[in-house]
Every structure is written in structure tokens, then in C-alpha cells.
Amino acid sequence: MFEERFGTAPAGTWSAPGRVNLIGEHTDYNDGFVLPFAIQHRTHVALRIRDDGVIRVASTFDDETVELGLDDLTDVFPARRDEVAEWARYPLGVAWALRELAGEQAGSLTGVDLAFASNVPVGAGLSSSAAIEGATAVALAETWALDLDRTVLARAGRTAENEAVGAPTGIMDQMASMLGRADAATFLDCRSLEVEVVDLGFAAAGLEIVVIDTGVSHSHATGGYGERRAACERGAALMGVSALRDLGVDDLPRAAELMDDVTFRRVRHVVTENQRVIDTVRLLREAGPAAIGDLLVASHGSMRDDFEISVPELDTAVEAALSAGAVGARMTGGGFGGAAIALVAHDRVKQVTDAATAAFEASGFSAPTIFTVAPSDGAHRD
Length: 382
Ligand code: ADP
Ligand code: MG
What we know:
Low-confidence stretches: none
Order of helices and strands: HEEEEHHEHHHEEEHHHHHEEHEE
Bound molecules: adenosine-5'-diphosphate, magnesium ion
Oligomer: single chain
Helix content: 40-55%
Distance between the termini: 17 Å
């Protein structure tokens, strides 16, 4: 595709993975804990240096190649972002964010041609957005010889998504895509951005993660996501803390007295979910992955009943997986659609797949897409 669009071969290719969040949902923007892992699905970018100050981006998503002067990035983002095709705001937004970080080098950055191809399912809660941001960030940082560590590159991805795209997301997806390791998860403190690598040991335990993509599309830029964030901010303000991260399970009785029922249930989800992430890390270390099933199930119940971000398709996927013998299951990602994950013994994957397919058919839902994911390495040059 690069040769087709740009007429020559690229100089190199880089890639970054999507991610699955094992547990810790809607905790990231509350300064809390998350436990995602990078998956084998990746977004690849091919790059060639130009001898002018122009950046061009192309993707298999769109026939149009989008072009901007590097010097124009600061005018376009964020004020005039609507003039840029939506998909192109992700890579161009990363270029803008990195240029802002380049300091004195900003004026002398070389132009580039970039072409993207991806096998990360879009809108399935597997973060194709972090994958395209991460691929762009590692490719540009290396090409521009910017001395930025991976946490800063993850932040640049988040800046692009928040300000250039306009989606108010946290930092989890970008950190997982940047810092992933094979057979391990990334335990992230979203306040300090401290990271611990936690061995998952799925293969040794004979377990797999099955993704059940409902095909119901979600949108971060609109709908309930912003409303949930607002409820969390309201709850924190009522409790006199800067973020819900500062509350523990012991604080919940007081929270129940101070706020309306809906706000309280939003708060209870975040507070208990933070505790479940900590408990999951402890159990993984002490007892191995077969021990975390109940925490996954409790996480799903909390999102369904307290945070109210599940949909019937996700509940059906979780119930079907559990009834077919999954160790645990929960919806993953921002909610309102996307995918559920199930932790399943290797020799039960077929039963779980068949059960989910049958349950969707019986409920009159469109057939789900079902596949397994393996914890994989983060962004790198290919
Ligand atoms: P997800 O859960 O997959 O991250 P998002 O809505 O956050 O869903 O991001 C999906 C959007 O990211 C797509 O609609 C598109 O604009 C952009 N995107 C992701 N991957 C690519 C790609 N390979 N090429 C172009 N745009 C992409
Ligand atoms: Mg996304």
C-alpha cells in the first residue's frame, strides 16, 4: 500500500498492539489501577522520510491521503481539528503532540510519509486507537531522534486522542500498547504512571483468554462515557478528594449518605474495582491465573448493575461463557458495546465458543466474532 500511495518503498516499518483489559474498568481517569495486556493484533506503519516539512498519512481505512505541513500542526490542533478526516487526527495528532515535546528541535523536524495497516478490530474494546497512536509515536520518535521514554510516548498518544480527536479517554490503552510484554500484564497506577510487569502464566496453566466481540459499536466521543466521567468527578468532589482513587471500600457508607443513588453507585463501582485490580495482582502472584475467576465475574456485575455500562449482548456473552465452564468472564473496554473476555481452559475453548454463538442466536443478536488473544510485546520497530 505504501508503494501504491507514495510511489516508492518505505524506509522501515514499526508496529504497536491493541490491548485487552484483564480487569480495572473506568478506573484509569479516576487515578486508579488497571491491569491490561497487549495482544497479538497490531497496527503497522510504514514510513519514509521526506526532504520537506510535510507529513502525509494514508490508511487501508480510507482512499484519501491526508497532508499537512508540520508547521501547520499547531494551527490545526486542537482548534481546527474538524477540518481533518477523523481517522487522520490520530496519527497527525500524535505528530502534533511529539512536535510540541521536541522543544528547540521542533522547527527542524523532517517531513514523513506514513501508511497504516491494522488487524486490530475497530470499536471492539481492543483499542485500535492506542495501536495507531503507539505505532505513530515509536516511528516518529525514532525517525526524529527524540529522546523520549515510553511513558512520554504513551502520554503523547493520549494527548492526541483527547485533544486532536476529542475523545476524553485515560492513559491505560497507550501504556499497555507501549509497555506490553509477552505472557505478562501491565499493572499500572494511573496516578503515578508507575508500572509493574505481572506474569500471567496463562500458557503454563493451560488457560486462554477468549474474546467475544458483540459487534455492537461504541463511541467514546458521545453518549454515556462523558456522563460517567462527570459522575465520578461529582462523587470525588462530594467526598472532598481529588480523585476516587483516594477512597477505599471503608469510605462507601459515608459516600452513600452524601450523594444521590446514581452517583453513589458510580462511585461504588470505581472504588470496588480498584480493590479488585489489587486483589487480582496479588492472586496472580500467590496462586496463579486459575484463581482470579471470581474477581472477573464480580467486575462484570459491578459494571452491569452499578456503573450501568453493559448491554444485553455483553451480559449474554458473559453468562454463556460461564455456563460453558469458563473460569471467569467480564465485559472489557469502555462499555456500551464492544467485547467480553472469558478466561477459559484450553480444552473448553470450543464449548465456550459454541455456547456464546448459540446464546446470541437464541436471543436474536447478530453472530459474535470470537477469537483468542495472547499476551504480547508492546510497540517496536519491525
Ligand atoms: P477502539 O476501541 O478500537 O480503540 P476507538 O473509537 O477508540 O475504538 O478508535 C477507533 C478509531 O481509530 C477508528 O474509527 C479510526 O478513526 C481510528 N483508527 C484505528 N485504527 C486505524 C487505522 N489502522 N487506520 C486509520 N484509522 C484508524
Ligand atoms: Mg480507543
